[in-house]
Amino acid sequence: MTARFRTALLAFTLAATVHAGAAHAAYPDQAIKIVVPFTPGGATDAVARLLATQLSNKFGQPVIVENRPGASTVIGADAVARAKPDGYTLMLSGSTTYTVLPALKPSLSYDPTRSFEHIGIVAMAPVVLLAQNGLAATTPQEAAAAARQQSAKGGLMYGTFGPGSAPHLTGEMFAQAAGAKMMPVPYKGSAQLITALIGGEIALGVDTVSASAAQVRAGKVRALAVTGEQRMPQLPDVPTFAEAGMPDVSFVGWYGLVAPAQTPGPVVDALNRAVSEIMQDEQVRKTVSDLSLVPVFMPGQPFRDQIAKEVTTFSGIATRAGITLD
């Protein structure tokens, strides 16, 4: 290699590096899209739109939300995993996408760790164990005793949103902690589940706090315990499972923001800083809390650690309970 050629190559490399750094420094210079793999109107959509507004204000560029539901979030997640890794296509989804499906589904078109750059977990979503008013149980321990009594008769029936859903996994955690056999009964959503509880079709149910708190306060169903590390403001008199002596009942959903794998580090860093600052804002935190969620910020490596931990946990639960998703 001649000295002249080496000099030219060095100059070209330096110019390319400077250009790339300038491009990243200018991020974003166009609209950003946040894909939500659910239909509009739910908690995931609400959190995504809150982030979109705040990111738009911070970056001075439009940030739009695109709903791409289907196949239990796989359609949206796969689209983002395959998107151009430039920071202009992101995804805000719940833990179902990142940990439940990878733990229960034999093969997925994406990998929750390798297919994405992890920007941050922004909210936690505890769930609540509910009981019909006719059940002679006012605590999780009493419900566990009732479940054990019914084990020989096929098991106490509890409501879920279908195989592999948060209520299903939480119910199996509860059954295993109780040492009891229980029978999951699938419903299409919170409204049907609550109606079944009120009507006495099922003894127990697991639901989100936001969907069930009003019915609990109205005395139509009874709340026995919530998952998570702290009591929920919407149900301040309801203990956590840990307080009730059942710490292994620990399913807590969450919402995380990611970009496609290979998104440049400076772009990921810019998004990480922006979201961290957004989640420290008191009004943002209040808005998230008003959704019956717990505002947090858990950046890249803790985000990945959470995925690894939960995939292991849910795989074990699924194996013991015989839960599989085709």
Automatic annotation (TrEMBL):
<comment type="similarity">
    <text>Belongs to the UPF0065 (bug) family.</text>
</comment>
<dbReference type="Pfam" id="PF03401">
    <property type="entry name" value="TctC"/>
</dbReference>
<feature type="signal peptide">
    <location>
        <begin position="1"/>
        <end position="25"/>
    </location>
</feature>
<keyword id="KW-0732">Signal</keyword>
<protein>
    <submittedName>
        <fullName>ABC transporter substrate-binding protein</fullName>
    </submittedName>
</protein>
<dbReference type="InterPro" id="IPR005064">
    <property type="entry name" value="BUG"/>
</dbReference>
<dbReference type="InterPro" id="IPR042100">
    <property type="entry name" value="Bug_dom1"/>
</dbReference>
